[in-house]
């Protein structure tokens, strides 16, 4: 009897100190979907590696399919893609007083600030640049 009381007391003490919430998917979310507040739920209990604040996940893009009721971790989400594979994009080279603007074809998907390979449509040379906006790639 005393043992059960001690276990219950320890559970209450530890539960209050270590209580944490976990963000889970409220529905099955396909990859490449932008996360909205309706897509997430907050449940009691800690899940290692999962988000504990839904605000941190809202506005990001699902990199993989997120299944209903499963914890959502930072590795499952990323910045929303601003450039899609095979999209015609503007390639911009701007250094000193020289500014060159040409068309290219994106060879991968990428979000703001991410690096992406692009084929210059004029020369057919593949270059790597950084996404600076929707359909815009800056080439070093």
What does this 3D model show about the protein?
- The protein is mostly beta strands.
- The chain folds into two domains: 19-78, Alpha-Beta Complex (Type Iii Antifreeze Protein Isoform Hplc 12), CATH 3.90.1210.10; 81-138, Roll (SH3 type barrels), CATH 2.30.30.
- It is 12% helix and 38% strand.
- The chain has one helix and eleven strands; from the N terminus they run αβββββββββββ.
- The strands form four sheets. The protein has a five-stranded mixed β-barrel with strand order 6-7-9-10-11.
- The N and C termini lie far apart (73 Å).
CATH fold naming of the largest domain: Type Iii Antifreeze Protein Isoform Hplc 12
Protein structure class: mainly beta
Radius of gyration in whole Å, from Cα?
A: 23 Å
Relative helix content: 10-25%
Q: What count of helical segments does DSSP give?
A: 1
How confident is the prediction overall: mean pLDDT?
Answer: 88
Q: What is the overall silhouette?
A: elongated
